[in-house]
Amino acid sequence: MATKAKAGPGKASKKGRSSSGRTTPQAEREHTRSDRYTPPIPKNTKVSPKWMGGFIIALFIVGVLVIILNYAGVLPGGVSNWWLVGAIGSIFAGLMVATRYH
Asked: What is the CA radius of gyration of the chain?
């Protein structure tokens, strides 16, 4: 006569169910819920001004143009590292404004 297996590896029940039918006791589940209310973010703070997207693109383009014009020697004062610092600053400012865009 074959014997009926009551527990699998690790003493788990045959169909993956515990004897009580719950995997987590009810008392533990109630404590995971937060009782604090977090109000939704107002809609007007999520919307950026319409000019912001163009401003981001303009900062990027100005930065790239200054780099190209500096190496071409077209800018006043000739080739200078200060033009490159300004161009990188413009690109960085564009990135900073882009992180605030909604």
From this structure: 32
